């Protein structure tokens, strides 16, 4: 165990360099640069709010907040897992020539997405202030569901990264999958409008629980039930254990397949 | 430190699956698994190779193309895991398996210095301290803010060599890296390797120039088609190898 920790500490500078590289390359040559991580969710929110408060009307109090908070979680999950998925194959040239702990590449991608998450969370706070939403002390606790989603995404990301080395099809399948997943997550619609059959499917989606907990804490000033807390933690641990297990089982073969 | 071993290679074999059937897609895999057609051409790039390098000694690897030299170095560097056998390494390593492997072509030379330093386990402050030396050695002063994709391959090699040879690692792995760059720069690199050797770095060295190998190495491992043909003192083996 201590060699693992030593190894992690040795490569900790690499982790920060990899994250810095991702961020730098993403915003190179864009005038507004990192500001886009803040502007992007705001623009999306405006579009969705205009569309959904004029065309389809949902009975949701403070719809912009509702959409934005759903997006904060879902977009992070989508971003983190999609970029983790290719983290091993896109660093093939490096992995073939230099020894680097391979999980570092997945971790770096999740961290870069985490920076985006912080920005979109800031955007959410700005909107809350702008629409004069009541700022309740439970807002502080909304960090808990956020951290659970981060850990959950890391587990899924490690699983995807390992499997994608074997089966490149996953890259194509996954983008279809996440499109479907978005409709199975209450990002734009309220749970109350779902027919009971679909509702039970939506409730099976782990993201639903995280989104609901997050909204409850961030602006409904409601503490999530004990049951949903436990469920959230169990799902997150399950993802981590599965992801780490599959990754470690396969990592010595990565280099022969990339 | 005494004369203890810094690299121990113990009955190492390495098998590659030369998969004529490299299934990139899940469908292929399923179909072939069902038909039980998942077969590989096994290829042993190394077979039962053992040798030892003592602290402070330098080792050359010679052999024809495809004899397994690079594979051996990659196993020692931890990039590949041997199919059989064991490798023990007692020190930190600066791997120069291929110059510029750790570069991100979209980043500038300066940014790549820090990225590559981190790959070797150096943090930002340590790299700042070495930065001037790297620029000076690579002679790329005016190009440090240019993206590396605009570099010539010689420039990339110069920068990569300068970064990989900062500090005094316990082990320096050089796989045919001295054959790049112009004549003058090659000399500079040789000199630098010589200096590191004097400071006690163990060099693991592959080159097609026997003169270079003889100059740098104390011991030589001679590989032939993945088998260890001979292991012994540099002079003696160079003589036999040159005559073969
Ligand atoms: N990843 C790989 N997959 C399949 N075969 C490989 C792989 N890497 C090396 N080989 C094979 O192993 C043999 C030894 O290669 P190498 O170690 O690069 O030789 P050398 O460096 O001595 O020229 C070659 O025949 C090469 O084709
Ligand atoms: Mg080679």
Helix/strand layout:
The complex is a heterodimer of chains A (258) and B (244).
Chain A: H1 2-10, H2 12-27, H3 35-54, H4 63-85, H5 92-95, H6 103-130, H7 143-166, H8 169-183, H9 196-204, H10 206-219, H11 226-257
Chain B: E1 5-18, H1 26-34, E2 41-54, E3 59-62, H2 69-77, E4 84-89, E5 93-96, H3 109-119, H4 124-138, H5 153-164, E6 171-175, H6 183-198, E7 202-206, H7 210-216, E8 219-224, E9 227-233, H8 234-243
Parallel strand pairs in B: 3-7, 3-8, 5-6, 6-7
Antiparallel strand pairs in B: 1-2, 1-4, 8-9
The complex binds adenosine-5'-diphosphate (ADP) and magnesium ion (MG).
- Overall shape of chain B: globular
| Largest interface, counted by CB within 8 Å of the partner chain's CB | A-B, 29 and 34 residues
| SSE topology string of chain B | EHEEHEEHHHEHEHEEH
Unreliable parts of chain A = none
Mass-distribution shape of chain A: globular
Proportion of residues in helical segments of chain A: over 70%
Under CATH, the topology of chain B is which? Rossmann fold
- Domain tally of chain A: 1
> What is the multimeric organization of the chains shown?
heterodimer
Question: What are the low-pLDDT stretches of chain B, counting only 5+ consecutive residues below 50?
Answer: none
Which CATH first-tier class of chain B would you pick?
A: Alpha Beta
What's the story with the biggest beta sheet of chain B? 6 strands, mixed
Structural class of chain A: mainly alpha
Number of strands of chain B: 9
Work out the helix count of chain B. 8
- How far the N terminus sits from the C terminus of chain A, by CA atoms, comes to 28 Å
What percentage of the residues of chain B does DSSP assign to strands (E)?
25-35%
């Amino acid at each position: 165990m201590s060699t693992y920790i030593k190894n992690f500490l040795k490569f900790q500078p690499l982790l920060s360099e990899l994250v810095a590289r991702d961020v730098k390359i993403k915003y190179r040559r864009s005038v507004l640069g990192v500001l886009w991580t803040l502007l992007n969710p705001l623009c999306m929110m405006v579009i969705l709010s205009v569309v959904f408060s004029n065309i389809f009307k949902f009975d949701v109090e403070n719809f912009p907040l509702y959409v934005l908070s759903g997006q904060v979680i879902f977009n992070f999950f989508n971003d983190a897992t999609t970029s983790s998925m290719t983290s091993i194959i896109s660093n093939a040239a490096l992995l073939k020539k230099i020894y680097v702990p391979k999980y570092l590449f997945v971790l770096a991608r999740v961290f870069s997405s985490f920076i985006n998450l912080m920005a979109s969370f800031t955007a959410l706070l700005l909107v809350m202030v702008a629409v004069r939403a009541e700022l309740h002390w439970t807002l502080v606790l909304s960090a808990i569901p956020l951290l659970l989603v981060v850990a959950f995404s890391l587990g899924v990301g490690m699983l995807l990264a390992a499997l994608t080395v074997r089966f490149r099809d996953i890259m194509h399948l996954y983008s279809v999958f996440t499109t479907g997943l978005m409709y199975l997550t209450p990002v734009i619609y309220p749970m109350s409008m779902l027919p009971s059959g679909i509702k039970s499917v939506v409730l099976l989606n782990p993201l639903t629980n995280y989104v609901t907990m997050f909204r409850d804490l961030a602006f409904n000033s409601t503490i999530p039930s004990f049951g949903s807390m436990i469920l959230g933690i169990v799902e997150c641990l399950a993802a981590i254990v599965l992801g780490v297990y599959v990754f470690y089982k396969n990592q010595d073969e990565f280099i022969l397949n990339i | 430190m005494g004369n203890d071993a810094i690299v121990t290679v113990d009955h190492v074999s390495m098998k590659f699956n030369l998969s004529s059937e490299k299934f990139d897609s899940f469908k292929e895999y399923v179909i072939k698994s069902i038909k039980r057609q998942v077969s590989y051409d096994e290829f042993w790039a190394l077979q039962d190779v053992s040798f030892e390098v003592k602290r402070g000694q330098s080792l050359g690897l010679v052999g024809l193309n495809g004899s397994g030299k690079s594979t051996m170095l990659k196993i020692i560097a931890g990039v590949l895991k041997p199919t059989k056998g064991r490798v023990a390494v007692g020190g930190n390593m600066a791997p120069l398996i291929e110059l510029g492997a750790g570069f991100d072509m979209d980043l500038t030379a300066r940014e790549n210095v820090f990225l590559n330093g981190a790959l070797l386990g150096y943090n930002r402050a340590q790299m700042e301290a070495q930065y001037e030396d790297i620029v000076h050695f690579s002679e790329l002063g005016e190009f440090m803010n240019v993206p590396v994709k605009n570099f010539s391959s010689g420039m990339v090699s110069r920068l990569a060599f300068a970064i990989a040879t900062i500090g005094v690692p316990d082990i320096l792995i050089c796989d045919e890296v001295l054959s790049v760059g112009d004549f003058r720069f090659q000399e500079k690199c040789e000199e630098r390797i010589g200096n590191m050797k004097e400071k006690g770095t163990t060099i693991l060295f592959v080159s097609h120039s026997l003169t270079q190998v003889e100059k740098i190495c104390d011991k030589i491992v001679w590989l032939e088609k993945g088998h260890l043909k001979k292991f012994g003192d540099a002079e003696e083996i160079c003589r036999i190898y040159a005559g073969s």
